[in-house]
Amino acid sequence: MFDEIEAFLTREGVSFTMHAHPVLRTVADMDAYLPFPLANMLKTVAFRVKDGPLVLAANRGRERIDYRKVAAAFGVNRRALRALSPDDVSAELSFPVGGVCPITLRDDVAVVIDEAVWTMAPVYCGSGKPTATLEISSADLVRLSGARVLPISRLD
């Protein structure tokens, strides 16, 4: 998936950088090993809506996703939203753990990004593999992912 995302970004003519690093799978890994400010890192979590689409929800690295808010974004009850296991993410989205990118290149996957993305310049996120981080502008990320931008982080 990494090669396809990189080729897509190149075809779109946007400015981006892929930063190579050791395998990273958690926010703690990102914080420990990456030189980027964690406030500009997006983590992406995959969900399935019962009888509905696959969903990617992205928010800042240290913040938690509010499942109720994500469910509401898709007009369903919280109980209809299920986080995918790492095996499901790999099988259904072709993303390895630590490499989930909010740009999926698939029409059947919905994307929602927390509204804090507008305060992030630049954004650092998954690239399609756990050994590279994508650096891109928030506007390009939102546009190319087809994301809806909504408040989806927990306020606790």
Can you describe what's shown?
The protein is an alpha/beta fold and 156 residues long. It has a single domain, classed as YbaK/aminoacyl-tRNA synthetase-associated domain (YbaK protein), CATH 3.90.960.10. Helix content is 26%, strand content 26%. It has helices at residues 2-12, 27-33, 67-73, 86-93, 138-145, and strands spanning 16-20, 42-49, 54-60, 81-83, 109-114, 123-126, 132-136, 148-150. It has a 5-stranded mixed sheet. It has a 3-stranded antiparallel sheet with strand order 1-7-6. A hairpin with a 4-residue loop joins strand 2 (42-49) and strand 3 (54-60). 35% of the residues are buried. The model has no long low-confidence stretch (mean pLDDT 92).
